[in-house]
């Protein structure tokens, strides 16, 4: 029988638990290092009637103030090979594993497939919630299943890819945000491995190459991301703040005629994904600040905390950008981060 072992932290600071570096506190916090502790934590009478939320790396959230409740800090570690066949390699990671370190480990183990997703901030457990993606690869393409605690049923469950209802930067877990606590993720790395270098930034790097390795793609993605995106350890940010909007083909045609150079990517369903960063940049926002919040001077899709910014200041800037893009292009921008 498992004996629960956890400490209850009171009036716990969360500034280091969110990549924006926003100062906020939680009435209670518990670090979850073993999934077996979860039922006991959730049943702890000290937290009865209090609201609850989960933070992994805090790389996709905006904290808007102190939290009068319980914050679960996901710290479950571990990564291992759990299956291998002619079609795929299965790798399992604890939900608290740092995503980039997991990607680096798979490359070092000669298990390619995640290289395009290098240097994305956050944890393995948060990756399916957001259905992360970058440089031509979406997580759902490399996803097998996950283990989670269903707080509604009071039991651990395993959910496969279909059950997770993935879509662009969306999933079952964002639609039912308080129900599921992900504890482990199993990834399916396809065999035979094929390089994905069609994304423009990578296509330029490997323009004349036919024999690209996963390690080379891994390093190229890191270089491109570091050139474009600020390091949260240096200046607070949550990466790309807005989703790339998807519009009907007819609307894209009208916009392209009115705004030469408009960037768009055709989708399988006939719609077109617009580059939110291009729209924001052309509205003149790159490098501009509103109080202590600002748009990054090299990437208009990234909002940054210049020092001491509150969640309210970040959101005020985001709303101004949304208004500007809507008034100019008639396109609505939707934030990627979860607002807490």
For the termini, the CA-CA separation is 36 Å
Strand order of the largest sheet: 6-7-12-10-11
Largest sheet: 5 strands, antiparallel
At CATH level 3, the topology of the largest domain is Uridine Diphospho-n-acetylenolpyruvylglucosamine Reductase, domain 3
How many β-strand stretches? 20
Task: Give a written overview of the molecule.
This protein is an alpha+beta fold and 340 residues long. A five-stranded antiparallel sheet has the order 6-7-12-10-11. Strands 1-2-5-3 form a four-stranded mixed sheet, with no helix packed on it. The mean pLDDT is 93. It is 25% helix and 27% strand. A hairpin with a 4-residue loop joins strand 10 and strand 11. It folds into three domains: 9-74, Uridine Diphospho-n-acetylenolpyruvylglucosamine Reductase, domain 2, CATH 3.30.43; 79-204, Uridine Diphospho-n-acetylenolpyruvylglucosamine Reductase, domain 3 (2-Layer Sandwich), CATH 3.30.465; 236-339, UDP-N-acetylenolpyruvoylglucosamine reductase, C-terminal domain (Uridine Diphospho-n-acetylenolpyruvylglucosamine Reductase, domain 1, Alpha-Beta Complex). It has helices spanning 38-43, 99-108, 127-130, 161-164, 172-175, 200-205, 214-228, 249-258, 276-282, 311-329; strands spanning 9-13, 25-32, 52-55, 61-62, 67-74, 79-84, 88-94, 133-134, 137-138, 143-150, 155-160, 180-190, 236-240, 246-247, 264-266, 272-274, 289-290, 293-295, 302-305, 338-339. It catalyses: UDP-N-acetyl-alpha-D-muramate + NADP(+) = UDP-N-acetyl-3-O-(1-carboxyvinyl)-alpha-D-glucosamine + NADPH + H(+). This is UDP-N-acetylenolpyruvoylglucosamine reductase. Pathway: Cell wall biogenesis; peptidoglycan biosynthesis. GO terms for molecular function: UDP-N-acetylmuramate dehydrogenase activity. Belongs to the MurB family.
């Amino acid at each position: 029988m498992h004996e629960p072992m956890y400490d209850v932290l009171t009036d716990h600071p969360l500034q280091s638990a969110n990549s924006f570096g926003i100062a906020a506190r939680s009435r209670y916090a518990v670090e979850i290092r073993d999934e077996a502790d979860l039922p006991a934590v959730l049943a702890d009478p000290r937290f009865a009637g209090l609201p609850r939320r989960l933070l992994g790396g805090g790389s996709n959230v905006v904290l808007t103030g102190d939290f009068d409740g319980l914050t679960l800090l996901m710290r479950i570690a571990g990564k291992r090979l759990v299956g291998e066949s002619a079609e795929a390699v299965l790798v399992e990671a604890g939900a608290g594993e740092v995503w980039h370190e997991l990607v680096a480990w798979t490359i070092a183990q000669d298990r390619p497939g995640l290289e395009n997703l290098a240097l994305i901030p956050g944890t393995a457990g948060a990756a399916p919630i957001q259905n992360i993606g970058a440089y031509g690869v979406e997580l759902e393409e490399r996803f097998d299943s996950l283990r989670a605690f269903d707080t509604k049923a009071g039991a651990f469950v395993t959910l496969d890819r279909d059950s997770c209802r993935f879509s662009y930067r969306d999933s079952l877990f964002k639609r039912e945000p308080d129900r599921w606590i992900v504890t482990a993720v199993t990834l399916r790395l396809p065999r035979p491995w094929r390089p994905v270098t069609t994304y423009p930034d990578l296509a330029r790097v490997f323009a004349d190459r036919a024999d690209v390795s996963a390690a080379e793609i891994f390093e190229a993605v890191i270089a491109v991301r570091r050139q474009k995106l600020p390091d949260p350890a240096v200046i607070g940010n949550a990466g790309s703040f807005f989703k790339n909007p998807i519009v009907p083909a007819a609307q894209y045609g009208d916009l392209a005629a009115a705004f030469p150079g408009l960037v768009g990517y055709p989708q399988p369903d006939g719609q077109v994904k617009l580059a939110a960063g291009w729209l924001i940049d052309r509205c003149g926002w790159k490098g501009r600040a509103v109080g202590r919040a600002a748009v990054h001077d090299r990437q208009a899709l990234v909002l940054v905390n210049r020092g001491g910014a509150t969640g309210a200041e970040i959101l005020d800037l985001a709303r101004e950008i949304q208004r500007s893009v809507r008034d100019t292009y008639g396109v609505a921008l939707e934030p990627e981060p979860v607002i807490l």
